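Dear all,

This email documents one entry for the complex benchmark we are building for the journal club exercise. For each entry we list the sequence lines for every component of the assembly. Then comes the predicted three-dimensional structure of the complex as a token string, followed by one or two observations. Please use this as the template for your own entries, and keep the labels exactly as they appear.
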Amino acid sequence: MDAQFWHDVQAVFAAAADARPEDRPALLDRLCAGRTQVRQQVESLLTSSESAGDDFLAPPADVPRADGPASDPVGQTIGGFRLLEKIGEGGMGSVYLAVREDGDFTQRVAVKLVDLPVSSEDALRRFRSERRILAALNHPHIVTFLDGGWADGGPAYLVMEYVDGVPLTRYCAQRRLGLDDRLRMFQLVCGAVQYAHRHSVVHRDLKPANILVTSAGAPKMLDFGVARLLDAPGAAADVTVGHPLRALTPNYASPEQLRGMPVTTASDLYALGVLLHELLTGVRPYETAGRPLDESLNEVLHTPRRRPSEVTGAQAEAQPPYALSRLRGDLDAVVLKALRVDPAERYASAQEMAADLGRVLAGTPVIAREPSFGYIASHLVRRHRAVFAAAAISVLATLAALGVSLRQTRVAERERARAESRFADARQLATAVIFDIHDAVAKLPGSTPVRQRIVAEALSYLERLRQDPAGDPAFRLEMARAYFRLGTVQGAPSVANLGDRAGARDSFLKAVAILEPLAAEPGAAPDAAYWLGDVQVALAGLAQADGRLDEQRARVEAVTRIAESLVARDDDSRARRLLATSYFFQAQLLPNRERIDAWTRASAAFERILADQPGDPAAMRSVALVAKYLGSTYELRGEYAAALVQHQRALALDQERLRARPDDRVARFDVAIDLSNLAFAAWKTGALERAADGYARSLALREALVADDPQDVQSQGRLAYVLIRLARVYGDLKQFEDAMPLARRAVGISERLSGIDDQHAVEYAAALTDRGLLELAASRRTEACASFRAARRVIEPLTGETKGPAVRVRLDEELGRLEDVRTTCAP
Amino acid sequence: MNVQRMDDVTRLLARWHSGDAEALSELMPVVYTELHKLASHYLRGERSDHTLQPTALVNEAYLRLAGLRAADFHNRVHFFGAAAQVMRRVLVDHARRRRAAKRIGGGRRVDLDEAAEAGIDPRLDLLALDEALDQLSAVAPQPARVVELRYFGGLTVDECAALLDVAPVTVKRHWAFGRAWLYRALGGDQPDSGSSL
């Protein structure tokens, strides 16, 4: 049968069905003239149509959604609790007063019945894990979460401490609380929020109804984390606030929540801002209830907020008993800071907000009115948009590469919340904003001008602050730390820096100028002396790099003095660590022959720290580092057996560290270095095979490190170094076929790196010389002489200017080696 | 559904809302998963207090995915149109698994009629209907589509008309034809000529 056949059948059927039954035979006669099969089909279908009856395939009517339990749960028992009466209703379910069924009728609890969107194994598992988190919240101002689960065939339920109280705003209005009392009450709320955030629980739906105040005047926060609990996986809850099950309260929702973006602690801080506004003025900053989402969003995002001191329209019963003009200035600033659209411009934590309210109560300046680092940072970002976009992309790419797509898993979300709260702590002075941007940008090639500008910006900010010295020791300490950090970025040796050693020294000296008097004030800032020690260590490093031996010695002595007094004062690991560090630097200052004792003393000091804190990675690294130095010192004295012992100790410790954290790049480098140190000692004692083996193992590690981060210039230099060493051992073994490719690769890598600075240029020349020496040993004189000529061409332009001592030493060594072979290639 | 997929859904919905019909077809796998989850949830009897009808499921899936209570008519119809197809697959898959479970003696509730559980006319063999719909679709695609839309998607005649861009009277005709054809195919009187098709 072709399509036309069925088309005809349909047409005839339609006509016949519309006709009265008695007219059908005549109609069919006319329409199906001579086409019996069409007619048969139509007649058969007409019969079916009649016998089918109305309910065959009766289309399901549009069924209204029937949400909620079918029957009244009052009187029922759920999870061992008998529901007594309904005491509330919210977007997520109804709340009942309940008592324990088995005996203890005195324990009154609140049971919330929730219609979970999806019940599956997955959701159940999640529910349980979230329940554990909620159960772990134990705070006087957070309602205790007792239990939760799924009743058989019924809705999910949450059992909580029953609070007989009234919502925060109503409590304050009813009792006509004064301004200071309201602020103190709000500080308690902030404390509870801070506590939850530290436990990685975000409320997501803060509003007056979720903060009940008992008759004793204690606020109790409800429903912490419940909003998230109800975001079952698979539910589209996160994409929209319009979802019936995610009926969050738009009046208190943050702009990012309204936009359906991920909710963080910053969203709670915004809600706190709305709450504070309402608490202080009797009205909310804006009204979104009952308005379309896009309109609300527009209002929230684009309408400038009024100052709380200027709002009007509070209803009589909500009218506070004080004049709103009292809010002018500091409280205006606090509320508006909390209500910023950009989360980065809000308070970094509830604690910070509470602290500012404390300042209002104490009459000291609030940070809300300080020029914010967030502002400066965003200003910077605006000015260097392209660079920052690139920085952001690189950061994202890194995260992706690490497989840490933060938004993908709940676990990651929790981690992120934790990281956020840590970050918030570190940002107390907000300097971190600038430095974080700096660090992100620092990895980009060609970012130096931007980095310099960031540093300049940070510097001018710090200078402005310095002109207005606050007496607060914590603040002064923060400032000193900021200078310390700044100096590190500018030019601390052995850290990625801008190479501005003079600027770095300036900053470090400013930090010293703040820290010295601070450390001298008894009890002002116990940490100040430690920071002073760290800054002096950095200054000693700078002096060493610049060849100012006297200053270096004086700085190291200062570190020792500080450390000794701290050991006497605190006798804790941090003090002992600083003292051990000072021994470490002392050892470096001594002539070679006297170093052994100093290293041994440093080693003993670090060994003791490690004994106190077994397995502590920092202590392990310090001991291993000293062992490396000690080993190298033995090597300089020709005591290779003793050197081997030290290198083996270092290797054992570094390997242990690496086993604990296989991804730790520093540990991987450390092991690679230990292996080549051991290989060197073996080489020097004539154990060529062992040396080759050690270098080959070190090479494999270094290859992997380069492959993992091709951008890391330092690791490439280290790769080139071990390639040359292994090539030379093969050369000694007369295995030139193995040696030459390695040497050529080393030359290739060091050539690429030679443009970085004089140090790298010298190493390039050294690689060329090494290749030449191998060629010479392999009796390829012409090639060898070409290599030496190339090395001279690289190194000769470098000899003119004065160099840093480290470069100078290497330069002289290499010039010496080239001098040795000069006659070989003489015509 | 993980965040990645949610992002996709948001993006696809945005595209679809702005008139990109392709987006809807890309959405379908997601819709399928969602409906499937909802359906098995219902079919396990975990929400016996609810009216068990495919329409409710589709409606719920729509709310969950689109997150809009009062979306505009056009979008809603298109969504439902596409979801009807998915709903059919979901229910048929479920019925097939149930049948398999019965055959091997597994399943907790083998004594219950799965069709009844699903709120579908218990006299109807869902798998047979599915097969018959396929046959109908081969000879008369439009009536088959109308049946699918109305029966599995819960669309009204007017909605079908809007979706298929035909007059409501045409939808009624297709409906009548499809119904008759399917009733016959499902065990009504089979004309001899049918076998010669």
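Observations: Chain B has a mean pLDDT of 64. Chain B has two domains: 1-121, 124-197.
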